[in-house]
């Protein structure tokens, strides 16, 4: 198997006496989409926060391409290649939709800059930003101030920004939560496209089992902060812990 792009080793965080993520070790590989599931309060979002750097680990470590990034903050991890959507904190509410994506394209161009590359012209930045807006079906909103967007459009914009940043690791946190029925397919299609390219390491937190089934190459189950199952979707979905966690919870089916 290839080298993991992302690894966590015994990753742990305590809030007072409560261990929200408990010694989670996992390796994530390029071209694989891993869905993290588990009951409410299992520690899924907290694990994401530890990987993306929003929260500091109490113990254990996070590695990106073999580099220990445990002590790096979220901004540094983003520049190193960990991209996360659906926090709705990446957006500049007073700028237009196109400006938000243009800034992401510009920041990516800066990160990728080396002695052989050139600065993009403003026109080129805008044309790249337009490309990402078209991919998320937001081209008709390009001049809208972000604060005026619907929740679903904000989430689509976050996907455009994530794509524009071209991170090696892409993290999606309940990508369709709060979206209207007609908005859901756009975002799911995009995740399918990213998966089909098979170059990115994709992590997804998801409750909806139909989404899990359609996207997962691998499923990790967290329960009380502990990794209790990890493997191919068919086996993991059939395991007693998943059956127990999800059967009888029709709102998540
Ligand atoms: N900043 C915090 N301070 C104290 N406790 C926290 C904090 N963040 C999370 N927790 C606790 O950690 C546990 C895991 O929460 P987390 O949000 O990661 O679960 P989750 O699996 O994402 O749940 P859900 O599916 O409901 O989003 C919960 O008991 C939660 O109350």
UniProtKB/TrEMBL annotation:
Residues 6-249 form the ABC transporter domain. InterPro entries: AAA+_ATPase, ABC_AA/LPS_Transport, ABC_transporter-like_ATP-bd, ABC_transporter-like_CS, BCA_ABC_TP_C, P-loop_NTPase. GO terms for molecular function: ATP binding. Keywords: ATP-binding, Cell membrane, Membrane, Nucleotide-binding, Transport. This is ABC transporter ATP-binding protein.
């Amino acid at each position: 198997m290839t080298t993991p792009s992302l690894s966590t080793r015994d990753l742990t965080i305590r809030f007072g006496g409560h261990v929200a993520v408990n010694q989670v070790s996992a390796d994530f590989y390029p071209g694989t989409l891993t869905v993290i599931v588990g009951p409410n309060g299992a520690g899924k979002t907290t694990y994401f926060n530890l990987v993306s750097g929003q929260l500091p680990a109490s113990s254990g470590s996070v590695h990106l391409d073999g580099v220990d990034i445990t002590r790096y903050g979220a901004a540094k991890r983003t520049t190193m290649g960990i991209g996360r959507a659906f926090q709705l904190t990446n957006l500049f509410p007073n700028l237009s939709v196109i400006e938000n994506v243009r800034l992401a394209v510009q920041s990516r161009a800066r990160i990728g800059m080396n002695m052989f590359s050139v600065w993009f012209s403003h026109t080129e930045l805008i044309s790249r930003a337009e490309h990402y807006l078209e991919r998320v079906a937001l081209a008709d909103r390009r001049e809208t101030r972000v604060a005026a967007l619907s929740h679903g459009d904000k989430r689509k914009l976050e996907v455009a920004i994530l794509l524009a940043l071209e991170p090696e690791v892409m993290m999606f946190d309940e990508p369709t939560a709060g979206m209207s029925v007609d908005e859901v397919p756009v975002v799911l299609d995009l995740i399918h496209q990213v998966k089909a390219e098979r170059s990115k390491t994709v992590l997804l937190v998801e409750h909806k089992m139909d989404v899990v089934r359609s996207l997962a190459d691998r499923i990790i189950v967290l329960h009380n902060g502990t990794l209790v199952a990890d493997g191919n979707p068919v086996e993991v979905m059939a395991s007693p812990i998943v059956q127990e966690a999800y059967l009888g919870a029709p709102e998540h089916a």
